[in-house]
Specification:
about 250 residues, two-stranded antiparallel ribbon, 7-stranded mixed β-sheet
Length: about 250
């Protein structure tokens, strides 16, 4: 008989977001931003528990009856500061679950600010974890216009200096010549519970051989600023099929 793995998804949603005040409860396409991610996680049968961690009672009340898998956790103040690493919150909640009798095999750290993450992407992450291909699997997005080879330091009197010093970046004149690079999208960090417990706030807790799942431009939307929120609204409200088709994105 196949082993039934316990897969825990933890969503961290502070009430005191600075870039967009109260962003987790802002209306996006007819429902609060936080509900988009909870709804996606609820559809994935492999996930048997979802924990919403928040210091805000309004957020907790809003999602109270949204999923049978959902458990609400009122986060202590020391884990709700501006500089609190999200992984610290996830570790705290996973250990709290173990103390109450639920020990997860794998833990997904899920950002509610990425409302367009697909169920298939999350299932791929879970599959890689279960097959022991890595102890950490994260979502990645392709670096486009903000390529590090184009980054500059700004010196006195607005003189510029290349940030990358050990490579002749001047030879990469065309964008097409630049090496293909990726950065974390911030949507999902999937880890084994054992790896998560080793987190000490000195690194990103990626393990020895982390894996990446590349997401498309829509999935990569991460709402931190007002312009991100407006773009997300544009995607939903205008239903720009021509744009989605050009990127091979289908909802």
């Amino acid at each position: 008989m196949k082993k039934k793995f316990k897969i825990l998804a933890i969503v961290s949603a502070r009430g005191g977001s600075k870039g967009i005040p109260r962003k987790n409860v802002k209306n996006l396409g007819g429902k609060a931003l936080i509900l988009h991610c909870i709804g996606t996680l609820d559809k994935i049968k492999e996930i048997d528990k979802i924990v919403l961690s928040s210091d805000d009672t309004k957020i907790l009340r809003l999602v109270k009856n949204y999923s049978k898998k959902l458990e609400l956790s009122h986060r202590p103040k020391q884990l709700a500061r501006d500089n609190t690493p999200l992984t610290s919150v996830v570790k705290y909640e996973a250990i709290k679950c173990e103390k109450k009798g639920y020990k997860a095999d794998f833990v997904l750290q899920v950002a509610p600010t990425c409302p367009f993450i697909k169920t298939n992407t999350i299932k791929k992450i879970i599959k890689h974890l279960i097959k022991k291909r890595s102890s950490c699997v994260v979502t990645l997005k392709k670096v486009e216009h903000d390529h590090p080879y184009r980054t500059k330091r700004l010196l006195k009197n607005n003189y510029m200096q290349h940030f990358i010093k050990n490579i002749n970046v001047e030879k990469f004149i065309s964008r097409q010549d630049l090496p293909t690079l990726y950065t974390t999208s911030g949507a999902i960090y999937g880890r084994t519970y054992e790896l998560l417990k080793s987190f000490n706030e000195k690194n990103f807790c990626l393990g020895n051989k982390p894996m990446g799942i590349v997401v498309d431009d829509i999935e990569a939307i991460n709402i931190d600023r007002h312009i991100d929120f407006e773009f997300a609204k544009f995607i939903l409200e205008k239903k720009i099929k021509w744009y989605c088709k050009s990127l091979n994105i289908f909802f």
